[in-house]
Amino acid sequence: RDEGIHTGYLLSYKKDDFLQVLQKEFWIHLITANLAALSLLALLYHFLHARLLFERIATTDKLTGVYNRHKFYEVAEIEAGRSRRHGRPFSIIIFDIDHFKKINDRYGHGVGDYLLAAVAALVKKHIRKYDLLFRWSGGEFLILAPETDAQGAYKLAEKIRKLIFGFSFEEVGRVTVSAGVSQFYPETDMSVDETIKRAYAALYQSKREGRNKTNVAL
Length: 218
Fold this sequence. Notes:
By secondary structure, the chain is an alpha+beta fold.
């Protein structure tokens, strides 16, 4: 061996950035996928919000904020079907603000509109949580009372009548309402309209007897 000769090796090192590129691509794809998912969720949210808003507009009385007649028939058909299947009672109360046309003529439609909204808010606050209040027409409102027979609905109608009579409304003061009550009978009522017809007959009887009264349809 020649001890005077030294052998050396020249090594060249180049950093392998494949893993870094792979990680970068992963995060890009992950962020892109998350942004797409967020966009999809945002679109879904706006769609559902618009649908709920449309449904609310379609089923709610604009002036009073309570349900309208269209919503009543949707709910009433469900209650009627349940009553026919299980024999569970439900009743309908129709009450009307006495001399509402005269109130409009005397104070103006603005005050009349206020009165309708105020009556609706007052009644809604004092009915049971499972009772449903509807604006029917003009100065008329309807209450659908599930799990309630005619006797129970009469007590509820009287509670509402006395509540309204004891309340002093702005500009108008005290007003009265007349009410009619009818129970749905699954054995004989072919539709909820028959129940409504009887409730109207009881309401008209209350009007004939001097108003500020509740009658129950026989």
